[in-house]
UniProtKB/TrEMBL annotation:
Belongs to the GST superfamily. Alpha family. One of its GO terms (molecular function) is glutathione transferase activity. Coiled coil: none annotated. It is an enzyme of class 2 (transferase). Its EC number is 2.5.1.18. The lineage of its organism: Eukaryota, Metazoa, Chordata, Craniata, Vertebrata. One of its GO terms (biological process) is glutathione metabolic process. InterPro entries: Glutathione-S-Trfase_C-like, Glutathione-S-Trfase_C_sf, Glutathione_S-Trfase, Glutathione_S-Trfase_N, GST_alpha, GST_C, GST_superfamily, Thioredoxin-like_sf. It comes from Turnix velox. Residues 85-208 form the GST C-terminal domain. SUPFAM superfamilies: GST C-terminal domain-like, Thioredoxin-like. This is glutathione transferase. Keywords: Transferase. Residues 3-83 form the GST N-terminal domain.
Amino acid sequence: MAGKPKLYYSKGRGRMESIRWLLAAAGVEFEEQFIETREDLQKLQKDGSLLFQQVPLVEIDGMKMVQSRAILSYIAAKYNLYGKDLKERAWIDMYVEGTTDLMGMIMILPFQPADQKENNLALITERAKTRYFPVYEKALKDHGHDYLVGNKLSWADIHVLEAILMTEECKPDILSTFPQLQAFKGRISNVPTIKKFLQPGSQRKPPPDEKYVAAVKKIFNF
């Protein structure tokens, strides 16, 4: 029997959080090795674990996988969360890529200068309301299914829920004009494995605070 996947990253969300979400949604238990100092990172770089000298790193099925997209695609395919054919996979990819763009804007917000945050927060809200969320709202309304692709839980649903919750941390009423997404949020949040991940005490990480931002800057030297 193969061991649990092992995740190497700093003790926060960043680019590892979507990987945690996907594994948790698939019902897969995983271990975490936190990178807490620059020396921890340099050790991984020196021992050849990091193909491109960057984390996230996930040890799974005898591989040391890097690059978020490659890791996520592998997990989605392995645990049957990647559609039934190439067309469904293409739709999942499109939804995921769009969502990733929105999440990237939110992810870097805590690391930006204070005088830029207000404008960037307004931009995140505007993009969510006019570019990203209308796409999912229309898809759910048009096909009338519970899920975004193939009427079956997929990586797209998990990723969009993560993005919704991240955006709500920036603007709590962001879904006020999106009834389909409000219902979708309720449904996907109640998938048993996801519901468990959303409970206190899970391996889900909290929003980054000043202490975490300072630690990350020190570890990654920026």
